[in-house]
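Teaching note: in complex prediction, the entire set of molecules is handled at once rather than each chain in isolation. The prompt given to students was simply: 'Predict the structure of this complex.' The entities are:
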Amino acid sequence: MSKTMTGLSPEKLIDETIEMLAEAKMPVISTGAGMSSESGVRTFRGEDGYWREHRAEDLASPEGLRKDPELVWKWYGERLKAYEDIQPHAGYHALVQLQERIGKLPVVTQNVDGLLQKAGLIDVIELHGSLRTASCMNRCGSPPIPITEELFESLPPRCSCGSILRPDVVLFGEQLPEQALRRAFDLAESCDLMLVVGTSMLVYPASSLPLFVLRRGKPVIEINPEETPLTSLAGVTSIHGAAGQILPLLVEGVSFR
Ligand code: OAD
Ligand code: ZN
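The expected output is the structure of the full assembly:
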C-alpha cells in the first residue's frame, strides 16, 4: 500500500475506513474487472488488459461482431472457458461476510465473470449483461438461448432464423439493460456509502454512480492500486491496494466492532 492522497498513514486510513463501513446501514458495492484480477481474470485496461492487445471495436461492438463474428465468438469462448475454472479470492469472501453481517449487500458490477454469484453474493446487479445467454442479432423474436459448449461447435452460432447470435453482454455503443440500470441509480440515490472496487472509472454510466452518492454528501470508498478519475474527488477515501488484500482487512475490522 503506498502513501495516501489524504496524507494519513495507511494504518490510519484503514482504521477510518473501517469506522465508516461499520457505521453504514445501507452500503452498496460497485465492482469492475480489477475485483477479479487476483482470481486470474484479465482486466481490459490494466497491465494485462485486453484493450492493450486488441481494439475494443473489433471484439466488443455490434460492428465488430457483424464484421467477424467467428473472431468475436472465439474471444468470448476463451473468456468463458477461463471463467469456469476460477475461484473467488479472499476479497469476495469478505464481501459475503459483510453481506451476512448487514443482512443484505447489493453489488453493482460491470463484470460478466460470475465470480460474485459463485462466492455467494445474493443481490448482484449486472450492468453489462451476462455471458449466460445469447440472442438473435436480428431481433427476430426468438427467446434468448443458454450459452453452452455446443454453441461453439460451429462458429458463429446462429439463431433458428439464420441470423448470427450475439452474447447478451452490453457491447460498445449499446444501451445498458434497463432494469439493472434503474436499480443501480436507485441504489446510488438511497445508499449511505458506496465501495468502488477495481474499476478504471472510464466507462459510463457505471462511472457516474459514485458521483451521485458524493452529490448526496455520502461517503465513497475506492480500492484500486492505481489512481482513477474518482481518486482525488472530495468525499472519496481512496485506498491504493489490491481487492484481495484490502477487503478482508476492512471486513475483519468491521466484525471486531
Ligand atoms: P478496467 O480494465 O478498465 O480497469 C480495471 C481496474 O482495476 C484498473 O483501474 C486497475 O488499476 C484495477 N485493478 C487491477 N488489479 C486490481 C486489484 N487486484 N484490486 C483492485 N483493483 C485492481 O476494467 P473496468 O473498469 O471494469 O465493458 O472496465 C469497464 C468496462 O470496460 C468493462 O466492463 C468492459 C470494458 O470495455 C464492456 O465490455 C462493455
Ligand atoms: Zn433470429
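Point out the following to students. The longest helix spans residues 69-85. The CA atoms of residues 91 and 243 lie 6 Å apart.
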